[in-house]
Amino acid sequence: MEQITYQTTGTCARVIHFERDDENRIHNISFEGGCNGNLKAISKLCEGMKAEEISAKLLGNLCGNKKTSCADQLAKAVIG
């Protein structure tokens, strides 16, 4: 498995860590910073999903009046 660390921009979470397997499935997602409970939930819901599925569901999701969100940043990270 490929281990990836993604530096976020515009969110409370500073970094996203995850692993990508040979089938482009995403595993072991964790965030540094941000809303702990919500980000744990996103991580559990996305566990084992293909990167394209995560991107299709989460890309463009916004947080308040920000131009991005932690979920949007995850979507960008997995499609890299």
Order of helices and strands: EEEHHH
User: If you consult CATH, what is the topology?
Assistant: Enolase-like, domain 1
Strand content: 25-35%
Overall number of strands: 3
**Any low-confidence stretches, pLDDT <50, length ≥5?**
none
- State the CATH class: Alpha Beta
Count, helices: 3
- Terminal Cα span: 16 Å
Would you identify the CATH architecture?
A: 2-Layer Sandwich
Mean pLDDT rating: 97
- For the largest sheet, list the strands in their spatial order: 1-2-3
Main β-sheet description: 3 strands, antiparallel
Structural class: alpha+beta
Shape: globular
Q: Calculate Rg over CA atoms.
A: 11 Å
Descriptive notes:
The protein has a single domain (2-79), classed as Enolase-like, domain 1 (2-Layer Sandwich). Strand 1 (2-7) and strand 2 (13-20) form a beta hairpin. The longest helix has 11 residues, at 36-46. The model has no long low-confidence stretch (mean pLDDT 97). It is α+β, with helices and mostly antiparallel strands. A 3-stranded antiparallel β-sheet has the order 1-2-3, covered by helices on one side. It has 3 helices and 3 strands; from the N terminus they run βββααα. Helices cover 36% and strands 28% of the residues. Helix 2 (51-58) packs antiparallel against helix 3 (70-79).
